[in-house]
Write a structure and sequence with these properties.
single chain; mainly beta; Acetoacetate decarboxylase-like; five-stranded antiparallel sheet; 4 helices
């Protein structure tokens, strides 16, 4: 889809597109979403000052999203595959400010050291280097990562179904987010993003080993996610940060 077509497809957004010029293009492909409900009190100390936890039926949520970033580039430059394409995992929760619900990244891991350095330097997001591999064999997908610095790890084996998905309100709450929040130098900023609604298909998790920490909340092999999603991906247009 062309960028003008992406921008014209905006009826699903909860608020209008920014009126300023977009700055970055990227693709979030072959995305595995794993979701856990948690007590809101367990996350209040984690989120940045000035935001409020976004709650669904009394619960806050943490998600681990494992995907492949591709074709990331500034508006007027081509992508450069050795830097622009890499596997990424983010651990996130859901916050809101001024009626703009978005995402707050608790942890972000990426496969390539140079991509980590550039992404962290340019965006201010908490990127870290991780060893990440993914493969497909006889319809079995494998996504594996080890963050040696923090001793976080993920090993997921899963298969996909082509059956149609009827999205629930919770599905939309967890996936349809059009901004993210980041605290930088004692100030809160918002990055606006836009993409078509996530296409979803059913996923069956056959094996899941993991350990991540979000504040005082531990996500481990003994606490499997209560909900999972898979998407072939979305084309994303992003704007520069603005004070939130």
């Amino acid at each position: 889809m062309s960028i003008p077509a992406i921008l014209q497809n905006s009826a699903h957004r909860p608020w209008p597109l920014p009126t300023t010029n977009w700055k970055y293009y990227q693709e979030w492909n072959k995305s595995l979403f794993l979701h856990w409900p948690v007590d809101p009190e367990a996350l209040r100390a984690v989120i940045p000052e000035g935001t409020q936890l976004d709650i669904f039926e009394g619960k806050a949520w943490i998600s681990v999203v494992a995907f492949t970033m591709q074709k990331i580039r500034p508006k007027h430059l081509p992508f450069f595959k050795p830097v622009s394409d890499f596997h990424e995992i983010n651990v996130r929760t859901y916050v809101t400010k001024n009626n703009k619900p978005g995402v707050f990244f608790i942890n972000i891991e990426a496969q390539k050291a140079l991509s980590v350095f550039l992404s962290r330097s340019i965006s201010g997001l908490p990127y870290e280097k991780s060893t990440i591999l993914r493969s497909l064999h006889n319809n079995l997908h494998t996504y594996a990562s080890v963050n040696h610095k923090k001793q976080f790890h993920l090993h997921a084996e899963y298969t996909l179904s082509a059956a149609p998905v009827t999205k629930t309100p919770l599905d939309l709450f967890l996936t349809e987010r059009y901004c993210l929040y980041v605290p930088l130098q004692k100030q809160l900023f918002r990055y606006n993003i836009h993409h078509a609604e996530w296409p979803m298909q059913p996923v069956t998790i056959h094996k899941l080993l993991l350990e991540y920490k979000a504040g005082e909340t531990l996500l481990t092999t003994d606490t499997p996610p209560v909900l999972s999603h898979y998407s072939e991906g979305v084309q994303v247009v992003a704007w520069d940060k603005e004070p939130a």
